[in-house]
Each structure stands twice: as C-alpha cells, then as structure tokens.
Amino acid sequence: VEQTYENVVRWLDRLGMLAGQAEWEQHGSNGRLLRYNPMPEQEQLPEGWARQRGVKGAPIAVHLLMGGEELTDWSLWPERDAILIGTQDMLLSRALNRGYAASRYRWPAEYGLVNTDALWVFDEVQLMDAGATTSAQLEGLREQLHPTVSGVHVPAVATSVWMSATLDPNWLGTVNFDVQSQARQFGLQNPDVQTPDLAKRYLAPKFLKKAKSRMGETSECAKEILQAHRPGSLTLAIFNTVGRARDVYSSLRRAIPACGPRLILLHSRFRPEDREKQLRRLLEDPDPEGTIALATQVIEAGVDVSALTLFTEVAPWQSLVQRFGRLNRRGEYDQSYAYWWALPSDDAEASNVAEPYELEDLRQAEKALLNLTSVSPADLDKAQFTMRIEPGHVLRRRDFVDLFDTTPDLAGNDIDVSRFIRSGDERDVQVFWRKVPPNAEPSRDEPSGAPPSRHELCAVPFYEFRDFLSARSSARQVRAWRWDWLDGRWVKAVPDEVYPGQVYLVDSASGGYSVEFGWDPKSKHTVPPVPLGSVVPEVQSQDSAEYDRDEWSESGEWLRIADHTDRVVQTLNSILVHYQFPEDVRKDLLQAARWHDRGKAHPVFQQAIPEEDRPPQWRGRNDLAKVKGRMRPYSRPHFRHELASALALLQAGGSDLAVYLVAAHHGKVRLSIRSLPGEKLPEESARLYARGIWQGDSLPETDLGGNEVAPAVSLKLDVMQLGRSSDGQPSWVERVLKLRDKFGPCRLAFFEALIRAADRRASGGASAPAATVESTGGV
User: Fold this and answer.
1) What separation, in Å, do the N-terminal and C-terminal C-alpha atoms of the chain show?
2) Degrees (nearest 5) of the Cα angle 577, 582, 587?
3) Euclidean distance between CA atoms 755 and 770, whole angstroms
4) pLDDT digit string (tens) for 580-599?
5) Is the peptide bond between 356 and the residue preceding it cis, with omega within 30 degrees of 0?
6) CA nearest 695: which of 722, 715, 712?
7) Domain 194-382, what architecture?
8) Phi, psi at 327, each rounded to 5°
9) Which of 452, 502, 556, 634 has the most crowded CB, counting CB atoms within 10 A?
10) Beta bridge partners of 709
11) Low-confidence residues of the chain, pLDDT below 50?
12) Taking the domains of the chain in order of start, what are their residue ranges?
C-alpha cells in the first residue's frame, strides 16, 4: 500500500498535477518520498506538464488511509478530485459505515463519500477473500439503493474496477450483482504478449521443483534455503503464516555468519516505518553474498522484486501464481528455480499447518503443481485450474441498509462488519505502544494518551491480541487500553471485548513487539515507541473522540452564531456549485447550514463559556458559537447542541431533510434519539430527556445571520418516542427511515458529509478557497 501511495504521488508530481508539497530524497521526484502534505484546497494547477498542455481543473490530492491521525482531513473537500489509497480493511470498513481506526463520528461522512461519486479500483482480487464478494455486492446494492430524486440522478453512484492476473468473473457474481450483464472484461490479447518487452516476461524461464522438506519443518526448510541460495542473488522464501516465517528467519539467523547473505524478514505485522526499512533493504541490489528474504503474503501484491531462487509453501492457486510472479520477473535470468514445500503426509499435521487457508484448496494446488515443470506466465496460462472464492458471509441488502445506523446497542456494542471484509481469523486490531508511567492511566491531555499517528500503528490479528491480554502473569503485566467514546477516556482493555477494527494503546514495558521481528506476543522486551515529535501531524482531524466535547467550537476566535453561520452558508454555496442538485434539495441543505448551530443559544452551552473566561466585549451575550480557548464541561453530561438545533427547526416548520442534517452534522445524533448512560436526570420523573436536552427547555430569540432570526422556542422531545404523537406527527425514527428510503442510505450520508465539510472548513479546520474551478469532485 505504501509503495502504491509513493508511486501515485511521484506520478502526479512529475505531471504537475499534485495538490500539496512532496519532498523527495533526491531532486526531481527521484528517490524515496520523505514527506507529503496534501493540500486538497489548492485552487490551480502549478506550472508543469499538465498546465503546459492545457489540462484544466484543480490539482489532485493523494491520501493514505492506514488509521491514526492524518495530515489533512480528506473528507472536508468532497467537491475536489482526490485519490485514496488503503488496504481492503480500511476502505471496505468505511464503505460499510464502520471505518476501522477512525473516530466513530467520522463514519457517516466517509461512508457517504466513498459510496457516492467515486471510482473503486480493487487490485489483486484473488487475494481479497470475503472482501471480493462484498465489493461486488456493494456494486449491486449501491445501484439498487440509489433512487432518482425529482428526476435528477445526482450525485452519481460509485462504480468499481476489479484487477487481477488470474481474474475469474464468476468470483464477482453475487445475489445483487450480475457480473455477466453489469460488467465488462478486459485483458491481454495475443498481439499484446508478442511485443518484445512483454514477451520477455511472458516466456521467462522458471523451472519448478518439489522441495525435499515439508511445511512446518523449520530447521530442514532453513537448510534447504541456504543450500539453494546463490551468492550475489536474491532468494525469496514465502510462508503462509507470520509465525512460520519468523521461525525460519530465527533458524537462519543462527546459521548465517555476520559476513554471510543479508537476511530480511518481511510481513504485515510491522509498524509502517519498520516495514518500510525492511522493504527498502529488499529492494536494494544484493550484496556480493546475496540476500535471503523471508516473507508472507504481503509480498504477493505491490512489491516489484525479481528473485533468482524462490521457495514457497503450497498455497491456493491464485496465491501461487502471484508468488511465481516474483521469480525472474523481468526475464533477466537464463534460468531460475521455484521450489515448493508440500503439506505434511499426516492428515492431522496437514490440517494444523493449512491455516489460514482451507485444506482442500491446498490439496488441489498440490495436484496441479505435481503436473508442472515450469511456472512461466506462458505455461501457467496453459494450466487448466479453476479457482474458487467461497465466503462464509455475504453482505445482504438488509445488512447494508441496517449499517446506515451508527448508534451502538444498549450495551455499547456495534455491528461487527469484519466477517464481510475477511474470513476466518485474518481480521485485525490496530495497536500502538507508548510509555505510560507505572500506576498511571493514559490521558488525552498527556503525550502518552494523545491520538495515534498512522506511523505508530501495527496491525495485529484480533485473536492473538486477545490472547496477549490474557497472558498476564507475575512475570509480565500487560497494560493496555482502548478509547471509550462515551466517557471520553482510555479504559483498560478486556480480552472478551476485543473485536476487529479497534485501536489499542499498550504500555511499552508490556512488550509484544520488536523492530526486527515485528508483532511478537512472546517478546517481553520493552518496545521502543515511535518518537512523538516525528509523527504528530501538523493538522489534526478535529473529530473529537469524546462524545461531550465539541472541539469545532474551540476555533481560536470569538464568534456569534450569526457570524459563524454566514461563513458556513458561504462555504456550502462554494461546494454546491459543483453539483446539480434539485432546487428543493439545495434549499434544504442551505437551511440546514443556516440552522445547524441554533442550539448553541441553549443555556447549557452558553454556561460552558463562563463570564470570567470571556473578553469584556463578549460578556452578557447568549449567542456565542466559537470561543478562543477551551470550553468548560457541560453542566448536563452528554449535552448535544445540534439536537436542540434540530428540534427548534422542526418546530419552526423545517423540512425533515434539513432537520435531520442539522442533527447529524457532528455524527453524534442520527437515526435514533435516546438518553445515554450517565446523563443528568430532570427532577420530574415523567419529563422527557435525551442528550442533555430536557422537555420544555427554552431557547431565546437568536440571530442566525442572512437576515434570518429564529424565534424563541420551548423545545419538545415528543418525536423521540416510538409511534405517532397525539396530534398524528411521525416519530424521529419514522422521519429518518423515510428519508433513508427516499434518497438511499449512501446519498443521505453524502448530504451529511457536505454539511460537515462546510461547517468544519468555516470553523478554521481548513482554509476554504474563494474561487471555483472545474472539477469532477470524485475519489
């Protein structure tokens, strides 16, 4: 993923079409990418290839989605072209409204954007497992759930491209996606493979031999690798599990003298910088003694290496084809050899080493290998082999529709989407290590508890991390925490509550990782943290991980509701010129922008800005929207001003769409309105209350800017109750469900993203451009 990111940034930089500044190890975008600061708001193309050739439009920003805090919040610029690069876990989880390693309050906006007006490119489909089926289902469901509104089908539904050297269209045929009628296939034709450069690769000599040792025989595998290795060359050994790769690496490490071949371990369980160092060592020219690299499936895609000698454990056929592609890749050797390790002869042992794959898939691959003596692309094309992808779980229409709701259940749990992304145990949590003082708890106000950067995060199988937490003993005390979104603090991690997609903070003294081996649950050595000064982003996302806190209101300047609202409306207008929305939808969006902060006139919000904290000219006011500095905690826990705004607009006759967008613009009040644990209760037991709003709360008359004044109002919470009210008005849930079905879940969330972007940009989270340019506004 990192290589693809760097190559795309390099490509756009050379064309003069890159939004932002890239710094390279060498001049002229040669060498390694040192750092890149995306600037999606950049207005004009810089001088360069594109402008010289008359290409119009804004430059393109590139964003790497790997979890953690980002330099730039890509979702704040929906009208601008952008390229998002990430793993299937990071991207598909966002398409399912459960973005891994992201603030839960960002989920709806990112969900709306990646499912609308976007082009998805799935590379190496054969490696995606359950994700391949989910990607096809998403393609079909988005089309079915994207109705035409007021005769206009805008914005466009997201579409997909699937790529693979071994692509079988039948993999993508699902209950909601007819691949034969809804997709077209493109591939190399005979004239293509006859061109000199491609013919050299297509006919590259790659002889196949069965290895003497078998899978799981660590010492024998290591000896065979050493015997086959040739000085000055690259020998690549690929294993199906990190554990076996690590074991053979350790065996070779003991056997190879200091003056011997360079030894490299590469897998997906490293922190990004450590993995990048290993990858750079792999891509360097071999020393006179050569290089021996031990790797896992991470080498199968996106790594352009060419080995003289290859070893591989038997794997599903589609994985073997990718692995053989790392042998004599460019046809530069007159002969090269691939050796494969067979399954153990004992059925029980074979079953034990088969994971993460199905034993039957490995048996079938073995049969095919026994009939081959060459694995050049030309010979592999002749091999008759049918590959299968059979996910255990298929995303159904009801599943996808239900995922629109991001409200956790009464126990605080969310729908687990990991089964739609990967099958079996190949599902991860993200872990980072910090020094936490003994007998202390991490705090967001201290460096030890600050949000993680993606440079710190290590992907760890969730079941291994669960066992790691359970391994507490007198010899090792594992101290780990996860973020509690409701209480806004780090809480101790509990093994039984670990599920994929979560982010965990681990005390460095607890071990579990080494720079050389990566994730290693047996390691008891103190983990060196990534230096915070080198990874803290220049621009924070400002999506508070605390339910009560409203960091957008702490903008660094004093503003009235009217002044801020004027900015938001102006920013939203600059966004809307890029979209051809029906006039009624456009009016609703602008009304939502005008009313979104009306609830900040609520006494609970204003009292969080005490008179003694205000400059003299701002004292005695009840219409402050932005403050310079930190607000005080709310007198009512879990107070949400946007709910007060929405109720006021509803009682003023606002449309259901405008009212919903007002409530949802922070991602904290959406499909349901219910009280939360820990709320302050009204003295009257029968009085309705939710999110810090009580039945009958009063809002004063408030200037909203744009010559619009909201009248004083007494708030009513009747809509939070199920069923119709006594005067026949629909409940909140009924209203939102009707909106979801009218616009489709993806488009409704897209509207949420537009309001959020306008509000955040107007709050100082990004400098909104003044002029407009031609742009398709896609990702």
Assistant:
1) 17
2) 75
3) 18
4) 899 999 999 999 999 999 99
5) yes
6) 715
7) 3-Layer(aba) Sandwich (3.40)
8) -105, 125
9) 452
10) 703
11) 534-542, 767-776
12) 2-191, 194-382, 425-534, 551-750+761-765
